[in-house]
């Protein structure tokens, strides 16, 4: 009898479910876009840091070589082998900077991180990007707490 006056009660329920589904899809797309945008910013930041490191080599390599030459000259002039002590740190630093700028340092770090993750499952860090399921789980955990 009331359905005659108020219409079909189930029809509103279906609309509500449809609206919830649409809102959930929009939220999923928003989260996916945020993840993609964050990854793009991270790639851009890594590229910028690499370019900055390569540009800094223009100053570090010549200055390191000049310090090394002065140390060698001072050693021959004074006959004191202690004047060669700056060569170790200078050569180590230049080697590290050159390896960082032109070597495969990032690939080496990622490979070692993958080995650590394979051997130790308790580590919370993951190399894969965040998925929607993980975001939903975290949202659910936050609602419970």
Automatic annotation (TrEMBL):
Superkingdom classification of source: Eukaryota
Pfam families the record matches: DUF2368 (PF10166)
GO CC annotation terms, alphabetical: plasma membrane
The name this protein goes by in its record: Plasminogen receptor (KT)
Organism, scientific name: Strongyloides venezuelensis
């Amino acid at each position: 009898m009331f359905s005659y006056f108020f219409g079909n009660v189930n029809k509103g329920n279906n609309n509500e479910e449809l609206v919830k589904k649409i809102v959930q899809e929009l939220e999923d797309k928003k989260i996916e876009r945020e993840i993609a945008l964050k990854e793009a910013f991270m790639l851009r930041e890594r590229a910028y840091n690499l370019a900055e490191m390569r540009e800094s080599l223009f100053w570090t390599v010549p200055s390191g070589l000049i310090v090394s030459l002065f140390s060698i000259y001072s050693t021959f002039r004074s006959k004191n082998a202690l004047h060669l002590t700056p060569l170790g740190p200078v050569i180590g630093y230049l080697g590290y900077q050159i390896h960082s700028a032109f070597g495969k340092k990032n690939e080496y770090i990622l490979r070692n991180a993958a080995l650590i993750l394979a051997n130790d499952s308790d580590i919370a860090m993951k190399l894969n990007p965040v998925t929607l399921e993980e975001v939903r789980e975290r949202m659910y955990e936050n609602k419970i707490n």
